[in-house]
């Protein structure tokens, strides 16, 4: 029997509850389907973060780590101290099998995060800012967990970048003096599905 495909449904999700159920159901075949479409964001984000990081020893939180593809790309780029979190237990269970994370925990990033302020040298959020996923407002929460002068890398598809004015929201954070924008690049997101995406690297002030 042909395996159920989930990728197209990802762009039709309307509520966080739909999104939760979607990833719980997709966890088993997520890596296979997404890799078939040559998912580019994990390697693009990891390379961009490595470009601005002072050391491979920094502690990085992979927010919305899913099955661990984004953490594996960080590990391939040399990062050694990676934690991960996600709100889907089924996706986290897959991430546990990757062996690249020091610590994995459940967290809903749209809620107040139970992470002490200024814990991480860097946060990576790959493919998680999206419709009915993690809202752009959560960037402030992500920044709260980062040490002063620490880095935030985000990678997201072009539809959400435009639909939720993510670039403008980043510019507001720059104007408010919260962050410095180090890098912003349009490129591949899921080339197999003909979807482009943006990568941005911010430094917290
Ligand atoms: C497209 S996957 C990306 C996973 C991984 N970062 C990658 O690049 O393969 C989106 C992930 O975001 C998670 N997610 C969506 N909304 C979330 C939320 N509110 N809090 C935490 N995780 C969330 C999903 O469970 C899923 O694992």
Structure in words:
The termini are far apart. The chain is built from nine helices and seven strands, in the order ααααβαβαββαβααββ. The chain has about 200 residues and is an alpha/beta fold. The relative contact order is 0.17. The chain has a seven-stranded mixed sheet, sandwiched between helices. The chain is globular. It has a single domain, classed as Rossmann fold. β6 and β7 form a beta hairpin. S-adenosylmethionine binds next to α2, α4 and α5. The site of S-adenosylmethionine has 23 residues, from α2, α4 and α5.
Gist of the model:
With 205 residues, the protein is of the alpha/beta class. The protein is built from nine helices and seven strands.
Strand order of the largest sheet: 3-2-1-4-5-7-6
Figure out the total of helices.
9
- The number of distinct structural domains comes to 1
Order of helices and strands: HHHHEHEHEEHEHHEE
Beta strand count: 7
Provide the structure class: alpha/beta
> The CATH topology is what?
Rossmann fold
Cofactors, ions and other ligands in the entry: S-adenosylmethionine
Rounded mean pLDDT is 96
Principal-axis shape equals globular
Which stretches are low in confidence, meaning pLDDT under 50 for 5 or more residues running? none
The CATH superfamily appears as Vaccinia Virus protein VP39
Sheet with the most strands, sense and barrel status? 7 strands, mixed
Architecture, according to CATH?
3-Layer(aba) Sandwich
Kindly provide the radius of gyration, computed on alpha-carbon positions and rounded to a whole number of angstroms: 16 Å
Q: Tell me the name of the CATH class.
A: Alpha Beta
For the record, give the distance between the C-alpha atoms at the N and C termini, rounded to a whole number.
Answer: 53 Å
